[in-house]
């Protein structure tokens, strides 16, 4: 609109240059238009008509009569008992709610997604989805003169929503739509007004797909109905997401046209001349993953019928949020497209207009050619003026250029690679396995080898065709028409959550009590009226609305609403329903039932201002005063202290029953759940045996049993113990002759009492009375003071009271252990005494042993002294030893034994001789001896004590007896057989020895 500017002030200056400001409205200079004069006349203009409003509506039906647009029905969050009729005047911008009557007294129920068609002075309303109800097949006539309704017999019609209708040659043609049994149908239904009969036309040409929420326009001049868009978007492989068809009403023939590639549903479309204007809609095509599609869009596209071409119009950035919507109505009036109402998260009541490019305002040829998007304006060379393009008039006006050529607008058929993509293209057909523009058989232009069966996406719709059967989740052509036509029960026929969710492909809507096909969830409740989906049988809620006792709890369940009693105290009933009112659910479905609750008392999203639960009234309409029936709270929804119950919606409070052990209980409990001062059960009538407490609280109290030689920790910091103020414990001695040590540790001050009982004492005896303990307390029970025998059954009782929470205390009770020091000293003394005795005994034994050994030695010495003995003289000669192995046999050498010990028979004796050891070269190694003693067992020959030595024996050493070698007798008279041996050796015979005496 403007060139780029450096500052805001400069831009404002340029705007003011084109504007002459006048009160309440800008008077634009030539070439500019719009409320702010900021749009050039060579561009299309969007405007929000702030001075005009209509009643909030979405998915209404509309017909245009002269300067007025009639809006019938539609969805609104406001409860209505009958289908409203509105009238909008284009000239005045005023919308009027038309009062209506009925000849029979019955008015049509509110609905949306229905169709409207004008026949003379009657508006024909067909089908639609009843507000919070099933899809309807009703047919109503509304007379615009008498403003009255008449219901027609609709026995031959099908339940339908999301369809469109047009009057053609005295009959109403209904295109497409959704049927709960047949799904999204591609039918063309015909209603004959004169005969009041219904039929489904047998059509030819391209096999179309059924849809919901499409837009259609009828060109009476061309005799064609153009149908664009709708839901669902994709169902057949390689097929376009947003099909665009044209239906010839004379030939009953479908033709597919080029698609703009902007899938949407619940959009609007109007036709003016050779252009079709399509605006808004729901473009959310993402099913599993979000890819950026908007639920409501401001997309604005235009189709040029002559050029067979789509182009897109831009919407001013400042108006994008205001004009984005779906479910709106549109009409063409005074060279402008008007849109009414719609939905973009809220129900809208605004009126918007779009003014196309004004070609006549362009004054030069260049701007004329550039005006608008697509083929819009052309320059008349002869008249030198810019005109709107009309292909039928280009020759008359001698245009400087032709934006499009009808012969060039056909698609290039050779680019199609499949039959379906081929027959989508204008003028193309599939023949000889290729896409061609010159197929000889005309039927090939509109059909593929599979026929029309794949275009039926519902089992029941498929089985309607004689040549088709539903097999393996798809519709296929069969050769045997007698095959059974089996289909599962439609989801719409299921009336309960369990039955619905157990059926394949069905979903249950809690808030609407409806079962729908999971493939239709986007179209069944396009305005978010289903507040909760259930897809699993395990998720079905078995709670009934009547189980909720307050308005707030009732509204938490999306299937429930609140019916106020109307007495101003807040009393009411929760029942099933929707925003429209209470529902009566039966096997036939659900329908509004205001006999259960009048519309004035029905609250589905809000609650009555006064909510006193029947225990008070509101003095100012909102605040409760002087709650009665022992209740308290801002809404009298709680019981007073000492009372319990849930005083909601008229329920009462009851006094706490705690068996004398407490005055208070849980105020919100249905039964008396007492705040017992000790460990009791709910009503303080039983001890908490599960936690180890014993006793009889009806006559006394409860005690916790302590075991000897254990440490106990009690923590009263949870919600279950916050009301306790007393804890009682007891212990019985397990050993008779040992004291008992008791230790108490507390983290908070407590009053502590100790007593005991026995079989010999009638009453409980106090030991310690109400002692204040804030840290550690110790006490010893002496076996000398108390009788610990089993037959006496002494029991010590401990009472802790008047403590605060959280409270933690530890108790240790045990038999004191023996003093380790005494044990150690006693053991040490005994050990020393034993050690001393042992040492003394050991020393005494050693003295006895020494005495015995001494005596034995003396005896041995005496015996040894009495033995015979003698001495000999041995001479060692340093000569070479003989060979170890003599070469010649030699005579035996007589050797004299040094000692002879005859055996018992005196025939043999052990004879010891002195031998000289052989060494190499006669040298004795250092540290070794050359002389050794040898003993042998020898025979004795008579009295000669000779020993025969074999020649191999080394040379003996000859002893020489000394002169005093014999003695006559020993002093004791025995013969002296001992001999003294003397050894003589020269200086060289001590090889290896330092002292000759070592030999």
UniProtKB/TrEMBL annotation:
<dbReference type="GO" id="GO:0005794">
    <property type="term" value="C:Golgi apparatus"/>
</dbReference>
<keyword id="KW-0424">Laminin EGF-like domain</keyword>
<dbReference type="Pfam" id="PF24981">
    <property type="entry name" value="Beta-prop_ATRN-LZTR1"/>
</dbReference>
<feature type="domain" description="Laminin EGF-like">
    <location>
        <begin position="624"/>
        <end position="658"/>
    </location>
</feature>
<keyword id="KW-0472">Membrane</keyword>
<dbReference type="GO" id="GO:0016020">
    <property type="term" value="C:membrane"/>
</dbReference>
<keyword id="KW-0880">Kelch repeat</keyword>
<dbReference type="InterPro" id="IPR056732">
    <property type="entry name" value="GBD_ATRN"/>
</dbReference>
<keyword id="KW-1133">Transmembrane helix</keyword>
<protein>
    <recommendedName>
        <fullName>Laminin EGF-like domain-containing protein</fullName>
    </recommendedName>
</protein>
<dbReference type="InterPro" id="IPR056737">
    <property type="entry name" value="Beta-prop_ATRN-MKLN-like"/>
</dbReference>
<feature type="transmembrane region" description="Helical">
    <location>
        <begin position="820"/>
        <end position="842"/>
    </location>
</feature>
<feature type="region of interest" description="Disordered">
    <location>
        <begin position="957"/>
        <end position="980"/>
    </location>
</feature>
<dbReference type="InterPro" id="IPR015915">
    <property type="entry name" value="Kelch-typ_b-propeller"/>
</dbReference>
<keyword id="KW-0325">Glycoprotein</keyword>
<keyword id="KW-0245">EGF-like domain</keyword>
<keyword id="KW-1015">Disulfide bond</keyword>
<keyword id="KW-0812">Transmembrane</keyword>
<dbReference type="InterPro" id="IPR002049">
    <property type="entry name" value="LE_dom"/>
</dbReference>
<feature type="compositionally biased region" description="Polar residues">
    <location>
        <begin position="963"/>
        <end position="975"/>
    </location>
</feature>
<keyword id="KW-0677">Repeat</keyword>
<dbReference type="Pfam" id="PF24972">
    <property type="entry name" value="GBD_ATRN"/>
</dbReference>
<dbReference type="InterPro" id="IPR051568">
    <property type="entry name" value="LZTR1/Attractin"/>
</dbReference>
<keyword id="KW-0732">Signal</keyword>
<dbReference type="Pfam" id="PF01437">
    <property type="entry name" value="PSI"/>
</dbReference>
<dbReference type="InterPro" id="IPR056863">
    <property type="entry name" value="LMN_ATRN_NET-like_EGF"/>
</dbReference>
<dbReference type="InterPro" id="IPR016201">
    <property type="entry name" value="PSI"/>
</dbReference>
<dbReference type="InterPro" id="IPR002165">
    <property type="entry name" value="Plexin_repeat"/>
</dbReference>
<dbReference type="Pfam" id="PF24973">
    <property type="entry name" value="EGF_LMN_ATRN"/>
</dbReference>
